[in-house]
Amino acid sequence: MARFNIVMQGSNIRTDQGSIGLSTVALIDSHARILLDTGHFGTRRYLLNSLKKLGISPSDIDIVIVSHAHWDHSLNLDLFQKATIVINAKEFDFIHRVDENNWATPRIIASLLDSMKIRKTVGDQDIFDDVRVIETPGHSVGHQAVLIKTDEGPVLFTQDAIPTLRSYHRGIPDYVTTNEQEARRSVVKLKEVNPSIYYPGHDRPFRISDGTPRYVGHSSLGVIIRRETEENLRIVMGTEDPEKPEMI
Fold it and tell me: Please, what is the end-to-end C-alpha distance for the chain in angstroms?
């Protein structure tokens, strides 16, 4: 059975000047060492430090599964030159003809992938007996989610087919779609998988309990403001269990 660690926790925090693009990155140990997505340049140091804490260097990664080629999920691909890149065939073809108006998919990704070892997937496909990609178009042309079998049950990395718990409720990805009908069908498809736990692309993990989605665990994010004086102002935003009503 596969095992996994969360290397970077996705977040849905945005600003009025753009997205900070914090996407979920996972390390999967199966018959090979697999990284799911890579994040972007702004998260590069955090990615490398998180891997280092797990005793992993980029050269130790055998396979990188690209859920899709949007900038926040793929710009650190160049770190993994020894890895085989697993990408949906439709996504691979699309990024080689993307135009300059597509702000979500940098054309540089096509050039980068052309210099790497590529394995194209078609439809739903087993990577190993305990790791399976699930074609889930709509957010992008060739988006793919990843289902792994673990000792605790099936775990589903929905990535941006269901990027947030809100998307699970709404039945459509937040932010971006290339085809709304396909995107809605992909959400239904992933719900039918009925895993023990969902890991979305830009939110905390959640599971379905008595028909109701509930977050698993907590998360925190520090916002650092560099002041003119020799100090940083750090603001930490996080979640915690609610306090019980106080009896007086």
Answer: 51
